[in-house]
């Protein structure tokens, strides 16, 4: 308390009078504090109260010196300093964003470079994904059978997204299946003979079919020399191509286009433009009925010549052909593995692996599916269908013969396609008339019937007309190998 207060207190007459009548004795140790308490007891004026509250050190909170200095520093930041600090923070954020984008760009460029390299190898026919070593036989319970056709299935294709299967049969019908559920999505019923003028669809056995690489068009060919074009998504009929003078036995869309190649028992190859609903040209060369046709992205196709025992590569732009010999029997099926290699099957029971640069097979497996009949009169099982998982080392063949020995055989192509090694077989009773791998290599589909797709030489009554969906199982990863890769 300031000393001025005590001076004023002494000058107060009331306080002085009271002090005369009531003497105050000072205790030892009492000092200013005793005087202060006495003054408070005498109720000083508001003026003194204001002075006490303003000068008192015990009324307000005690603020540590350190905190005071921090607060002073914070409030001391000028607008210019604040702008500078925020600008630095913004620049740091931009730097982090640029580094993150640079990492993403590097990753994307690596992916693009990898894809371009794969495309170059694919075009050169040198891309060979090693898948066969990891495949194992599926359990019988894992194989699904889809039934809907009344007569033998003759052909089938899988949509590019692997979600649907299109199948056709000798009952002239086409069925679109959902792969996941196995249910029918759409059925195009066949018509009876003589109803061609009023029936929308086929009225004769369907022998072949193809789907465009973008999944837009479906093409089917029949014994009546007709080619039908459908909208794959809705199964709506679009066009009808006429011009062949014999049954249409092979169809294939050139990959990445809507150019359609067709083959016929009239020994000719025809080229069509489906977008324009137009015929383009005809090529001749085979000496017997053509039994199969395939193509990829190059402007060319390959064909199997049946009993003329030749395989031919047709260069469409040059209007030329290469002729290959190798099988001893009728060549009934053909499939391209990549742009440079193909696989064929014949009724002499052999499966052959070819390069488009060599006139003889790179490898041939005779009696690929065994024999049937008595010891002295044994005959090899016909190879009725082949399939290839594109740009890989995995192919398959399907046999026809006795129901107890019919099977789908998977093969591994050796390095540089120099050999064929059996992997495992899957029993399938009946004629395996068509085989197709899914694009991603997750499953294999087999179209099976009681009769061969090209004729009625004999019939297996105990066989079932159906579609077999066979999963392609992989070996479980080896823990030691997984550790090494980590």
Task: Provide a descriptive summary of the structure in words.
The strands form 9 sheets. A 4-stranded antiparallel sheet has the order 2-31-30-29, with no helix packed on it. The protein has 7 helices and 32 strands. By secondary structure, the protein is α+β, with helices and mostly antiparallel strands. Helices cover 21% and strands 35% of the residues. It is globular, with a radius of gyration of 45 Å. The protein starts with a helix and ends with a helix. Strand 11 (248-253) and strand 12 form a beta hairpin.
Strand order of the largest sheet: 2-31-30-29
**SS content category:** alpha+beta
**CA radius of gyration:** 45 Å
Major pleated sheet:
4 strands, antiparallel
Could you list the spans in which at least 5 consecutive residues all have pLDDT below 50?
1-60, 482-486
Distance between the termini: 79 Å
Proportion of beta-strand residues: 25-35%
Number of strands: 32
Share of helical residues = 10-25%
Our count of helices gives 7
Rounded mean pLDDT score: 82
What is the 3D form? globular
């Amino acid at each position: 308390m300031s000393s001025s207060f005590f001076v004023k207190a002494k000058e107060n007459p009331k306080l002085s009078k009271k002090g005369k009548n009531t003497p105050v004795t000072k205790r030892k140790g009492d000092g200013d504090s005793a005087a202060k308490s006495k003054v408070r007891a005498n109720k000083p004026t508001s003026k003194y109260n204001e002075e006490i509250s303003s000068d008192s050190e015990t009324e307000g909170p005690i603020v540590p010196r350190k905190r005071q200095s921090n607060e002073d520093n914070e409030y001391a930041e000028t607008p210019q300093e604040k702008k500078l600090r925020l600008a630095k923070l913004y620049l740091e954020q931009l730097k982090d964003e640029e580094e993150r984008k640079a990492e993403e760009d590097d990753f994307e460029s690596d992916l693009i470079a990898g894809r371009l390299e794969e495309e170059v190898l694919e075009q050169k026919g040198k891309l060979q994904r090693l898948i066969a070593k990891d495949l194992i036989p599926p359990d019988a319970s894992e194989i699904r059978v889809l039934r809907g056709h009344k007569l033998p299935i003759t052909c089938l294709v899988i949509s590019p997204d692997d979600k649907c299967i299109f199948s056709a049969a000798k009952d002239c019908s086409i069925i679109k299946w959902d792969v996941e559920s196995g249910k029918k999505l759409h059925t195009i019923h066949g018509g009876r003979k003589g109803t061609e003028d009023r029936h929308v669809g086929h009225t004769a056995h369907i022998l072949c079919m193809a789907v465009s690489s973008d999944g837009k068009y479906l093409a089917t060919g029949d014994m009546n020399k007709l080619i039908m074009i459908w909208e794959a998504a809705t199964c709506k009929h679009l066009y009808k191509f006429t011009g062949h003078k014999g049954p249409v036995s092979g169809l294939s869309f050139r990959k990445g286009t809507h150019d359609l190649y067709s083959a016929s028992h009239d020994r000719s190859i025809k080229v069509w433009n489906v977008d324009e609903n137009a015929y383009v040209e005809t090529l001749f060369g085979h000496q017997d009925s053509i039994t199969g046709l395939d193509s990829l992205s190059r402007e060319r196709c390959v064909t199997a010549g049946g009993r003329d025992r030749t395989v031919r590569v047709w260069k469409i732009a040059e209007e030329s052909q290469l002729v290959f010999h190798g099988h001893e029997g009728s060549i009934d099926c053909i499939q391209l593995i990549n742009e440079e290699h193909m696989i064929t099957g014949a009724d002499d029971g052999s499966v052959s692996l070819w390069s488009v640069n060599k006139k003889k097979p790179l490898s041939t497996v005779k009696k690929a599916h065994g024999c049937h009949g008595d010891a002295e009169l044994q005959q090899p099982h016909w190879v009725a269908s082949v399939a290839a998982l594109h740009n890989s080392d995995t192919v398959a063949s399907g046999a026809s013969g006795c129901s107890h020995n019919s099977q789908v055989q998977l093969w591994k192509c050796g390095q540089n396609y120099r050999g064929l090694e059996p992997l495992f077989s899957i029993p399938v009773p009946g004629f395996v008339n068509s085989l197709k791998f899914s694009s991603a290599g997750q499953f294999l589909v087999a179209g099976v019937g009681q009769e061969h797709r090209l004729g009625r030489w004999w019939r297996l009554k105990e066989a079932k007309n159906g579609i077999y969906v066979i999963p392609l199982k992989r070996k479980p990863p080896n823990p030691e190998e997984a550790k090494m890769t980590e």
